[in-house]
What we know:
The structure holds two protein chains of two kinds.
Chain A: E1 3-6, E2 11-14, E3 19-21, E4 23-26, E5 33-38, E6 44-50, E7 56-59, E8 62-65, E9 75-77, E10 86-92, E11 98-99, E12 103-108
Parallel strand pairs in A: 2-12
Antiparallel strand pairs in A: 1-4, 3-9, 5-6, 5-10, 7-8, 8-9, 10-11, 10-12
Chain B: E1 4-7, E2 10-13, E3 19-25, E4 31-37, E5 43-50, E6 53-57, E7 64-70, E8 73-78, E9 87-94, E10 105-106, E11 110-114
Parallel strand pairs in B: 2-11
Antiparallel strand pairs in B: 1-3, 3-8, 4-5, 4-9, 5-6, 7-8, 9-10, 9-11
Amino acid sequence: GDSVTQMEGPVTLSEEAFLTINCTYTATGYPSLFWYVQYPGEGLQLLLKATKADDKGSNKGFEATYRKETTSFHLEKGSVQVSDSAVYFCALGGSRLTFGEGTQLTVNP
Amino acid sequence: DTAVSQTPKYLVTQMGNDKSIKCEQNLGHDTMYWYKQDSKKFLKIMFSYNNKELIINETVPNRFSPKSPDKAHLNLHINSLELGDSAVYFCASSYGTGVMNTEAFFGQGTRLTVV
């Protein structure tokens, strides 16, 4: 069945550091891929998405590219801020959203 | 205007009680979902409805019963609550006939604590 694997957390970075959160997936067909973010005490918000191979999703300085050959959708940001501290979820579309385990990111000043 | 709203936000109750969580969306979506998030933040789908019809029913105890009076509402009723039901429950909605290749919009969550 469909599945998503995210890099284990938690991840702790200093402000302005480079961020990568790895995400790989297993799926039949070519589903859309998503990154969601969950700030403390809140629901999930869509951060970015990609609907087909080689698409790059981007939002708020975050980027991820849909790589069919490596079945990956890694999240990157060139310079993180304290306000980026949150839990990040990679997700796979289909008959339902299949989520990865989530990666807790803490950014220190 | 809140797109997907859940009530209550917090729910503390004793074991054995029956409780309901309500969800409403004003986005005009035709598909709604309930997800459960455990203490390790793992998210798992419980149910999905499309135009008031149940289309996904994961392995969930039958103490959990969803009800969709119309396509803008999906409520979750839980009977005989157990300690293990403590979690955050998220409602979500999207376009499409259950094919979630479009983005889903989530409510703020209901933190259920069973004591």
